[in-house]
Design a protein that fits this description.
22% strand
Length: 102
């Protein structure tokens, strides 16, 4: 079952703008979405809130489906899939770093 997005269009566009200059922090390779990938993603999201994930060619599968699956398994918002790059966001409730527009 797909997660219901809490982001509105304006907020999604804002996050995409912030993500332009980010470097990928997590790589998904031939092992796919492993527990190690999810743990690395969790740490990166806790630290940064907005994270780029690079889908290697060896990850196979449809990149949009893989991005949606990654977001669902990690319990985060899928902001964008562009090429083989996925942009994910999760608010850090203790120390928010990104303030979304209304």
């Amino acid at each position: 079952m797909a997660a219901v997005s809490v982001l509105r269009g304006k907020q999604r566009r804002y996050l995409r703008g912030l993500g332009v200059n980010l470097d990928p922090q997590v790589m998904v390779g031939k092992e796919g979405i492993s527990e190690e990938v999810l743990a690395t993603l969790d740490r990166a999201l806790t630290r940064h809130e907005l994270v780029k994930v690079r889908l290697q060619e060896s990850a196979g599968a449809d990149r949009k489906a893989l991005g949606a699956q990654l977001a669902e398994r990690a319990g985060v918002e899928l902001v964008q899939v562009l090429g083989r790059t996925v942009l994910l966001w999760r608010r850090n409730e203790e120390e928010p770093r990104i303030t979304l527009p209304d």
